[in-house]
Specification:
Strand content: 5-15%
Strand order of the largest sheet: 2-10-9-8-7-3-4
Number of domains: 2
Number of strands: 13
Mean pLDDT: 97
CATH superfamily of the largest domain: Type I PLP-dependent aspartate aminotransferase-like (Major domain)
Order of helices and strands: HEHHEHEHEEEHEHEHEEHHHHEHEEH
Number of helices: 14
CATH topology of the largest domain: Aspartate Aminotransferase, domain 2
Bound molecules: (2S)-2-hydroxybutanedioic acid
Structural class: alpha/beta
CATH architecture of the largest domain: 3-Layer(aba) Sandwich
Low-confidence stretches: none
């Protein structure tokens, strides 16, 4: 039967990881996959996670199954981290998932169970895997305008106009903070306008929250999610712990469904358990347990927040340094947006040819749409990148 299978088109981000690994040049710069790196180019195990894992190793007496939606303490701690006081616990269903991707996948499946004819509105551009999963599930996508190429900011007017076309039963997929791939995010007024459009259309928001703490801080980055979930009847939230806890390979995430009607929320909770059972039975536990310990132990939590804040401010500093270098070398302010963007990524606005030139002539690896992972830089490589960008004619 395997003869009926053909090769799959490569995932652009994963393909770039391999291209970079195969490049023998010592001076190569990796701005590809969205993985945080420190100044030494290392993706560290965060201190608090290391301490929690040590304690787990010492204290854990069994690896027996937990429950279909994971450890209740993990769900409680994650709801508190993401939603704060925005909604009380009976208003939120939650299940642990294998990473943020698992949460995204389960959210789409849940939405399709609720409405087989749904459409999912996606920002243009969005994380390529959103589109890939939706295509795999046979769900129709409707792109909405998002990024203004000329200013490298959010095209709020275009976005709101396109979202007005959504209907009840549709999903509107939003990036809660640190938009991937552009780095451009709606301001407070635009978020309020988005809530109004969602309310008028009756479409259901789905928020992908993969970078809480990487933008303007833990509470600020959750602000739009809290606003939406507390203002509208129903909200899906796909949360990743990969980046802000640095537990990438442990596959740690959660899918939450917030709703004003607690009976419906209870029914959703059942459906989350059902969906987990169909797809993988029990979600991974190790990363979730370490995250729970970090979130609930005051000392570990303080240390985690401090390290996360160091990471966030480090990326902000790199953004400012790159914008300043480019200002000096290009003799213009046209790259000032780099310091305004938030999170790991910025879309530089280079053509595919310029991206290729950056890779081939300068050993600079960024995704084909010119998405750069700012955390791939350090103080020494910022001027080298700025020079390469100018030389590549961007
Ligand atoms: C990215 O966008 O680079 C990350 O979210 C990693 C991934 O899985 O694509």
């Amino acid at each position: 039967m395997f003869e009926t299978l053909s090769q799959q088109p490569p995932d652009k981000i994963i393909e770039l990881m391999k291209l970079y690994a195969d490049d023998p040049r010592a001076e190569k710069i990796d701005l590809g996959v969205g993985v945080y790196k420190n100044a030494e180019g290392v993706t560290p195990v965060m201190r608090a996670i290391k301490a929690a894992e040590k304690r787990l190793w010492e204290e854990q007496t069994t690896k027996s199954y937990v429950g279909l939606t994971g450890d209740p303490a993990f769900n409680d701690a994650m709801i508190d981290l993401v939603l704060g006081d925005a909604l009380s616990r009976p208003h939120v269903a939650s299940a642990a998932t294998p990473g943020g991707t698992g949460a995204v996948r389960q959210a789409f499946e849940l939405a399709r169970m609720a409405n087989p004819g749904l459409r999912v509105f996606v920002s243009d551009p969005t994380w390529p895997n959103h589109l890939s999963i939706l295509k795999h599930l046979g769900i129709e996508t409707v792109p909405y305008r998002y990024f203004d190429d000329a200013t490298c900011t959010v095209d709020s007017e275009g976005m709101l106009a396109d979202l007005e076309r959504a209907r009840p039963g549709d999903i509107v997929l939003l990036h809660g903070c640190c938009h991937n791939p552009t780095g451009a995010n709606p301001g407070a007024a635009a978020w309020r306008d988005i809530v109004s459009v969602l309310r008028t259309t009756g479409a259901t928001p789905m928020i992908d929250l993969a970078y809480q703490g990487f933008g303007d801080g833990l509470a600020a980055d959750a602000g739009p999610t809290r606003l939406i979930a507390s203002s509208l009847p129903e909200t899906l939230i796909a949360v990743s712990c990969s980046k802000n806890f640095g537990v990438y390979r442990e596959r740690t995430g959660a899918l939450m469904a917030a709703g004003q009607d607690t009976d419906r929320v209870a029914a959703v909770q059942d459906n989350l358990a059902y969906l987990n059972r169909q797809n993988y039975s029990f979600p991974p536990d190790h990363g979730a347990r370490a995250v729970t310990m970090v979130l609930t132990d005051p000392e570990l939590r303080a240390d985690w927040e401090a390290e996360l804040e160091e990471m966030r401010t480090g990326m902000l500093h790199l953004r400012e340094a790159l914008a300043a270098e480019l200002r000096a070398r290009a003799g213009s302010d046209r790259f000032a947006f780099l310091a305004e963007h938030r999170g790991m990524f910025s879309r530089l606005g280079a053509t595919p040819e310029q991206v290729q030139r950056l890779r081939e002539d300068h050993g600079v690896y960024m995704v084909g749409d010119s998405r750069m992972n700012i955390a791939g830089l350090n103080e020494a490589t910022v001027p080298i990148l700025a020079e390469a960008i100018v030389r590549a004619g961007v």
